[in-house]
Design brief:
It contains no helices and 8 strands. The protein is mainly beta and 69 residues long.
């Protein structure tokens, strides 16, 4: 399962690392859009398999951020 960016913005940080267990609703990343920090929550549970975007990169709405297995 992939967790997608809910909006366009800069990826400020990840709140998880590869190998971490993630619960449904847990914050996995934080985006910045229009000078506001926007948390991104998991829409399911699993283990982080891959962090898809680079911290500091601009991501588009719907772009994969975290891959869960």
């Amino acid at each position: 399962m992939e967790i997608l960016s809910p909006m366009a913005g800069m990826l400020l940080r990840y709140s998880v690392a590869v190998g971490d267990a993630v619960a449904d609703g847990q914050e996995v990343a934080v985006l910045e859009s229009m000078k506001m920090e926007v948390p991104v929550a998991a829409s399911g549970q699993g283990t982080v398999g891959e962090l898809k975007a680079e911290v500091g990169a601009f991501v588009q709405e719907g772009e994969p951020l975290v891959s869960l297995r």
